[in-house]
Amino acid sequence: MIQARYLREDRDFRGDPGFVVSGGPPREDTFRGVRLNVGYPPRRNIQLSVSAEGGERESNVFGADYDYAAAAANVRFLF
After folding, report:
1. CA distances (Å), 49 to each of 26, 30, 55, 56, 59, in order?
2. What does the pLDDT read at residue 53?
């Protein structure tokens, strides 16, 4: 089994929550990420999988940008 996923989110934070006075432009964030998952069942009751994921967020707010990367390995026993 092989799975791939691409994600893009555009978020506009509009409006005033009523307790913060910022005076700046409304916050706008763009998130982009990818994920790849590979799985293999060596036996009927065992499933192995490995995944890798990475992404970035860009924002018009100073210090709110970030990049990330993650990896995971899983073993699943079915009984």
Report:
1. 41, 29, 20, 24, 33
2. 96
16 close to 24: Cβ distance less than 8 angstroms: no
Runs of H (alpha helix) within the chain: none
b/e map 30-69, b = 16+ CB within 10 Å: eeebeeebeeeeeeeeebebeeebebebebeeeeeeeeee
C-beta of residue 66 within 8 angstroms of C-beta of residue 54:
no
C-alpha to C-alpha distance for 60 and 38, rounded to whole angstroms:
35
The answer to pTM > 0.85 is: no
The tokens for 47 are: 């499933």
